[in-house]
Amino acid sequence: MRIPSFPTIVRTFYTLTNATSRALPPHKALLPFTRGTVLKSMPTIPFLGSLFSSAASRDMSYPVQKSDDEWQAVLNKEQFRVLREKGTESPFTGEYDKHMPSSGVYTCAACDAPLYKATHKFKSGCGWPAYFDSIPGAVTRHTDRTFGMARTEIVCSNCGGHLGHVFKGEGYPTPTDERHCVNSVSLRFAQGDGEEKSKA
Q1: How many CA atoms lie within 13 A of 94 on its CB side?
Q2: Which of 47, 84, 107, 152 could lock onto 166 through a cystine, CB 3.0 to 4.6 A?
């Protein structure tokens, strides 16, 4: 008997979890699906997202407060999934993964608050934009120790939008030995230093 490859198992798990998480009759969730459909995107795994997300970030109050309907009106579907539902974009697909400007600022895609300077960005090869530090006070950290793992979620301090996670001690030659692994859809890039926005 041939054992399926690891990527096939992961895609099947993603698809089944996504299909069964919707309000569909059980027989529809088990219908066969085509390989093309599975490869189009990697949807959020709802039950894993709830296990790995930080309860502290959901309970905090942020300066920018909007309902889900208001966020859906200003964010596209993928931005809403990542920023508000704590999803993750597929690796090596984001607009800012290989974006390496010499100056400028990365802002929150939801509220436009300055988060990272271009000089904070470095090449990590992880598949998502990587920064060794953030603009002071722009990013809030929440530690989640689910399953005995220490993961640190990072969110925008202005609106609470999910950015990604911080990893420490990986040995990158950066001043902080940290990697802020950020979803590209959580960001926008602007030329300038961002100081005028942070004062507003």
Answers
A1: 29
A2: 152
- In the numeric block, which tokens belong to residue 84? 């508000």
Residue with tokens 């066969």: 32
Tens of pLDDT, residue by residue, the chain (200 residues) = 567 666 666 666 555 554 444 444 444 444 444 444 333 344 444 444 444 444 444 557 899 999 999 999 999 999 999 999 988 999 999 999 999 999 999 999 999 999 999 999 999 999 999 999 999 999 999 986 655 777 899 999 999 999 999 999 999 999 999 999 999 999 999 987 655 444 44
DSSP-based three-state secondary structure for 155: strand
DSSP letter string, 103-131: S-EEEETTT--EEEEGGGEE---SSS-EE
Q: Which of 79, 80, 121, 87 is nearest to 104 (CA)?
A: 121
The residue whose two tokens read 């979803």 is 183
Alpha-carbon distance of 45 to 21, in angstroms, equals 9
Map tokens 């722009």 to a residue: 138
Catalytic positions = 181
Long-range contacts from 26-35, C-beta under 8 angstroms, 24+ separation = none
Dist CA 97 CA 126 (whole Å): 9
